[in-house]
Amino acid sequence: MTREGKRSSMAVQIDPNSGLKIFNTRAGKASEKIAGKGYSTLSDDSLTSLPEEPVGAVFNAEEQEKYQAFKERRRGAADYMEMKGEFSRYLEDLYSSDPVQREALTDDCEILVVGAGFAGLLLWYKLKNAGFEDVRFCEKGGDVGGTWYWNRYPGIACDVESYSYFPLLEEMGYFPTMKFASGFEIMEYCQKLAEKFGFYDKCLFHTTVEKTVWEEEHQSWLVKTDRGDQMKARYVILANGLLTTPKLARIEGMETFEGDSFHTSRWNYNVDLKNKRVGVIGTGATAVQVVPEIAKVVKELYVFQRTPSSIDVRDQRETTQEEIDQWKSEPGWAKARRARFAKISSGRTALKANDEYLAGKVADFKERKQHARELSAEEMMAKQLDTNFRIMEQIRTRVDNIVEDPEIAQSLKPYYPYGCKRPAFHDEYLPTFNLPNVNLVDTAPSGVSMINEKGVVHEGKEYGLDVLIYATGFKWMEAATFNMVQGRGGKTLQEKWQEKGTQTFLGIHSNGFPNLFIVAGPQGGGGSFNFTDALEVHGDYLVWLLETMRAKGATAVDVDKAQEEAYVEHCKQVDIQTSAFRDCYSYYNGEGKAEPGSLSYYGGGRWHKYRVHAQETLEPYIFN
Length: 624
What we know:
disordered N terminus; about 15% strand; alpha/beta; single chain; 20 helices; five-stranded parallel sheet
């Protein structure tokens, strides 16, 4: 037998103890060049603190008009395209060695999960502990990690504090090295999780699910993949994340560029940026982390910006030995910290991550104001918008205090409600624009107009480049999987939602798609500003549901159409009621095109009321 044949035969084996198939399909790392760090620790207080809050500043009619003008100038400017045809090369996996060769599978399993990021890893831990062993995972990448597998650009870090974000810290006996961990540390942690809990034996890597069809006669799903698999699964769980599909800005002539180019989610470490002329298109959360790092090595950097991000302070720090010693003496410390984090209702407060509160040293995360009378919903919103406005004023003042060129500073100031676009945090991004080799090209309001063989052309000026990097982000809550799931009657999930808008119950079920469960997808609540919260809650819910079905002897579960419609209407109303906080164009609202209630869930803790009622009464469920 050849070496390749031996490797292929070892890829799929039978566990002698359980009789279940186990896999050995994890790919090797493509290059040791794939390495880096996240946020730096800085000692300069002028960079790690915001200016004083402007006392008495209010979001009055004049300021509202300024925000509206900023928004309307950009109406219709967002034009993105899928990476197909000649642009499909931007989706190639550059992080792993070639896929492990294996036989196509045509067998059965009880549970098939799509995705091997935090959601998949946490699901396996919970399912295994509940006695569900016949579980299989399909992952298009060559290793675990999910978003942290695909996003490995220089400077990548998590904006949720690591002590609350990392799942299963106590079970792992692990303490993150930094308050805001780098993506490289998170990726390594995912690998440690997978090794400790036997995940690698359960996962088919470099395997993309292409079609999932409900077979009524078998009460199960037929799952087809790009590796020729045709597996049957009683249950299918989609756990492939919120931001999984990269997107490109549609720019005339982009296919003609003769230099190197890539998307940040497929960072090409074989391209040496040292002493090169480099362009970055996009200034969202990814670019904010990338720009300060590559500015240190490139000859010339051009940052093409259509809309500025809000750049808040990061104030990174290392985890102290004192903290580690304290946590070692506190059973349940990580879960308690995450529970306190989940109580924070303000996005900025959550992402600032006050240590005194999260460590339990103080009772609340803010000083509560006492009003002479109970405020109406309208009055509460007005006060929140005023607070929001003052935060943005601080952020804009910070730009003036740091950026030396007044014209560049003005271009870097955002005029929209805080959190309307994804907030960014960095203490080195703004100072980067004071460097002699860094150039901001303000392309507002329409963005870059043309690319030719030599570089970017904007307003008649050519910017010659050796390397062009697309930091143009991802589709929000648009997993390609939705178009490949075919339920009762032959209709795909995407077709159903295109006809009526997003239709789910709890964001987890959709009528007509029995035994299909979506983790942390559209309309999915139960979380907080920490994504791991939702994964914990959804994982616990699914274990409860599967145990309930096991006890009932049920083979399939669907949800009642009327219950689904009532939940969908609820999602719509809470979105409309809070829409003033999202009055701009961003991926959160489909660049202004998404129907209310169709993407994120904005009902806060009310999601749990729907979940608890469902679990206590079982009214929404149709068991067979």
